[in-house]
């Protein structure tokens, strides 16, 4: 199969040999040693095609990713993105997988589907082509045949060499993902040594596949019917630890299922071999593994499969922290630490039974993180055997399971530290409290309190009587739309909905109040409803963003909620955002300040940029406007040489995207600060650390120390006064806001800070 694909790629690329072609740059490298060059990029191509299928990417985005990666592969230094050339190169490669007319000279793995013709009257103008996998089994076969020594899909079998500059010649990648050449050259190992040190330390950690978890993983996947899974009306049978079993959209379910299969394939290829991850970072300094899917920052599917190669004895505190982590994974993370340990003790027999017969005793599948929970269950079972059967001391048990602690609403937590807001600090566990703070519940209570006041003001308004009628009507209309098969029936249902909205236009302004009071008295559902907007507030979620989140996230909370109308969810979203901004004053002040910094940069027509305090990492918001352009490509002989139009959005030199700069300021500044915190943690631990942005992992035996270091380094970072540094760098000290009186040293006394 490999030889067949390489031959097909060669054939396609040979048709571009004309120097006038858009991939003439590629021929500079191909002509040196054509066969060697094609073989070199094979694994890269398979990786990009696989990710395109899993993510349900458009043909254009996959082609651009392919072309850009190939160009990066052949250049010793990073090059500026050239979208037009990249898409032409990528399309030629994709042809090798879509050769329907001549399958004997290619691989019939992919197809393209026109999913949006656009608004233009011209054929294929503004068209959006989706990449569709026509043979999942064949894709799996191709992945299984990959060479783990050379493929970017697989973790490394030996540590990558150290980062010493902005470009890694061995990994053929840049230190900062997507950064311009000019920005890359501003960062050196000397100027930003903490970031280089952290990356190099993380790259030295050896991992193994947890074979106990993998056996269960394989068995569960084997019981699933792919054909049944991809049906529109698919209903999972019983409990499942896989997200694809819970996904409603067929396209998303297909991608999640393929991801699960992909992870299985990679894990199987790794076997009992030790493996390593390579890392780089984004423009904010956030660290990411370069291997897709099977890594510590991937889904719970992958996390549960990964364990440390080298073990560490539990010691005096290891059992305690393993129990805390187990409770966290199950979903009991709002209890006091001792109560979490007690919860595990009280349910110990049941938890261990999951490890004894995981396919029969399926309680672990109900956990918040099922695969991580099962890994804990296996570990607790092993410790029990070590102690009771072996007669050994628990403290001497050598554990290989990574356990984690993380921040409490990380975005709001960092904004609270910046603003020194002592009133919000207890809600995000920056000061000692008797029980964990819960900012989500706080906002939920305030929001429904505001909703109750509005209801009181309206009194016995007719909406209270009209609500049942309106809900019944919209249910009937939306059900018609769901069951519609023909285009005519769907159009009819949409038309009926528009007419319904016009008839009830005035009532819609008020009906949201009794509608959202459907959750009155159910604090758990209220908390779930507001969770994502509150979580993303720390990253500057917009008014429209909150509206969209409320509409999308609440459809599964209550039977009636899935029939809601946007005219009901939008005013509730506005009420929620208003509540967050008024009740979380310190964080809200910081968000407003960051917006002002972006606006000043816009007035000067320059990127908002700053050196991250302590780490000295150069963060640059390189947001340029894009201009829609159309590229005609000839895609397969199946198109009879007519070609198709692809829409691309190349960047316009010198034209700043002021809107993106304004909306991006808050999340980017906060992310750069939490990245600095992570960097400090990694560099100040003399043991193995695993990182997932605001989540920090290690062996259970080292967790007590990691917990201490995490809090100490948080204090160290904010005692450096990053706000003053940020404002000084942007010539904005005149904007310095009034701050609270929070004593940052209180973080050390908090049992729940980062736990």
The strand order across the widest sheet is 11-19-18
Mean pLDDT: 88
Question: What Rg is obtained from the alpha carbons, in whole angstroms?
Answer: 27 Å
Overall, the morphology is: globular
- Strand tally is 19
Query: Runs with pLDDT <50, length 5+?
Result: 117-126
The number of distinct helices, counting runs of at least 4 residues, comes to 28
Strand content: 5-15%
How many angstroms separate the termini? 49 Å
Helix content: 40-55%
Secondary structural class: mainly alpha
Characterization of this structure:
The chain is mainly α and 755 residues long. Among the domains are: 312-399, Helix Hairpins (Orthogonal Bundle), CATH 1.10.287.280; 410-424 and 589-749, no CATH class; 439-583, no CATH class. Helices cover 50% and strands 9% of the residues. The chain is built from 28 helices and 19 strands. It has a three-stranded antiparallel β-sheet with strand order 11-19-18. A two-stranded antiparallel sheet has the order 1-2. Helix 8 (193-202) crosses helix 26 (658-683), helix 13 (318-330) runs antiparallel to helix 16 and helix 17 packs across helix 26 (658-683). The protein is globular and about 80 Å long. The two termini are 49 Å apart. Residues 117-126 have low confidence and may be disordered.
Q: Which tags fit this structure?
A:
3-stranded antiparallel sheet; 28 helices; 755 residues; single chain; 50% helix
In short:
The protein has 755 residues and is mostly helical. It is built from 28 helices and 19 strands.
